[in-house]
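Quick one, tokens below. Sequence please?
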């Protein structure tokens, strides 16, 4: 399904770097945009050495707050008329993003800076703690999805991808994958048994948890390679040439904390697993990227012909995984149970939102799957859009991610509204509560169909 990469900010906070460095609260929007431009100048021209694509020599990035807009690439930074944002009805919320069309047909990606808020609420980018602008990292990552992975043949069977972790979350597959991450990081650091132990944990995972391995495989490929590109760009933006000694030292430092993190969701593991495997393959000077285009994951490639080395059981990690799984089940359970009840309830209004309208969104809790519903559930979804005839905003709701079918070519998400629909307000349907804000022309027959389509 296209939610895999095209519209997701795993927000879920994968894109926020684990490396910390304070950013001045006095930074102006112009200065922050200049930081983004400096990063693109430093990193993008060299990314063709990382992946054989001319994309980053062609890519235009458009950024805007609620008053100003800029266009930049690896060679130039230009302030542009704000009508370019208004005419496209783009949402400027912090880290919202969308693929857009430009008159010269160059690949162009828009990312929002967020509205400029009066004190004491400073713009969110002012509290960023990464060594390079988070917006730069996001743009590099998402552009790879939009313009490299969507080419024919690069991602086999893209609509069969799922991000979800079955609910309730089980600790066994998560324990195996956490061990796998640690073993790959040990390999990157030069520990000779690391790859053999990675093979050991991989074999346990795929044998004991074959459904988990099959379900998340495509996400391992898609998000793992995009995270690999993103990390390479971040390190190059700090002045370290790709595959240099200083690049390697910076890489090991940057991946230390995310490799020690305790993961509880399959798709969040995909990012670090793919990145680690890719950088190990680079160290081994293996040809691997063309095989990714054939549908083989970096993890599968790096473990080929590797004999398993039995690894000792880490009881502390096992206890940590069990506890974190307990927490995530406790946090998501009420949301998932409420959606399950609404899904089968008569009279509930179903609001379908085309992802082309939605642009990006954020998730505070993640993707999950339950037996009763044939879709991935997006728990903690926040999204908004404005278009000529209306607008919506969803705040931390649960929604179902729906693939395109023969009946509809659009990927959608489904939000359920269990309340009574208000009467027409001068020809418009207006809903305002803690979960949602909706203002659209009053849909015909909505009282009978209980269905609203936003597109």
């Amino acid at each position: 399904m296209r939610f895999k990469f095209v519209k997701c900010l795993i927000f879920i906070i994968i894109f926020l770097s684990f490396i910390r460095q304070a950013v001045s609260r006095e930074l102006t929007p112009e200065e922050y945009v200049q930081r983004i431009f400096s990063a693109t100048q430093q990193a993008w021209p060299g990314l063709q050495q990382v992946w054989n694509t001319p994309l980053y020599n062609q890519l235009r990035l458009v950024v805007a707050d609620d008053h100003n807009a800029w266009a930049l690439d690896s060679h130039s930074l230009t302030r542009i008329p704000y009508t370019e944002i208004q005419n496209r009805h783009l949402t400027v919320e912090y880290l919202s993003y969308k693929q857009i069309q430009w008159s010269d047909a160059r690949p162009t990606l828009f990312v929002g800076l967020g509205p400029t808020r009066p004190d004491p609420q400073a713009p969110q980018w002012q509290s960023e703690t990464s060594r390079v602008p988070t917006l730069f990292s996001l743009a590099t990552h998402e552009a790879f999805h939009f313009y490299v992975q969507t080419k024919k043949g690069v991602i086999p069977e893209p609509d069969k991808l799922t991000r979800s972790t079955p609910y309730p979350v089980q600790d066994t597959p998560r324990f195996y994958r956490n061990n796998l991450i640690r073993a790959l990081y040990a390999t990157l650091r030069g520990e000779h048994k690391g790859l053999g132990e990675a093979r050991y944990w991989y074999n346990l995972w795929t044998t004991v948890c074959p459904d988990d391995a099959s379900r998340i495989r495509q996400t391992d490929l898609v998000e793992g390679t995009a995270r690999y590109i993103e990390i390479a760009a971040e390190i190059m933006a700090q002045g370290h040439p790709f595959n240099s000694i200083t690049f390697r030292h910076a890489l090991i430092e940057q991946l230390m904390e995310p490799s020690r993190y305790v993961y509880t969701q399959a798709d969040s593991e995909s990012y670090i697993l793919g990145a680690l495997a890719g950088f190990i393959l680079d160290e081994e000077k293996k040809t691997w990227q063309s095989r990714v285009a054939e549908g083989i994951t970096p993890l599968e490639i790096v473990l080929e012909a590797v004999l398993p080395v039995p690894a000792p059981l880490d009881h502390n990690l096992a206890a940590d995984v069990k506890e974190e799984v307990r927490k995530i089940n406790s946090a998501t359970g009420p949301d998932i149970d409420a959606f399950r009840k609404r899904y089968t309830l008569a009279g509930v209004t179903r609001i379908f939102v085309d992802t082309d309208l939605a642009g990006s969104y954020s998730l505070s809790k993640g993707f999950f799957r339950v037996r009763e519903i044939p879709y991935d559930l997006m728990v903690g979804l926040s999204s908004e859009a404005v278009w000529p005839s209306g607008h919506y905003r969803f705040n931390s709701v649960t929604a179902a991610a729906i693939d395109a079918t023969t009946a509809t070519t659009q990927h959608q998400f489904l939000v359920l509204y269990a309340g009574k629909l208000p009467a027409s307000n001068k020809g418009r349907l207006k809903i305002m509560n803690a979960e949602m804000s909706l203002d659209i022309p009053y849909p015909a027959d909505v009282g009978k169909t209980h269905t609203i389509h936003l597109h």
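Residues 315-343 form the longest helix (29 residues). The CA atoms of residues 185 and 255 lie 8 Å apart.
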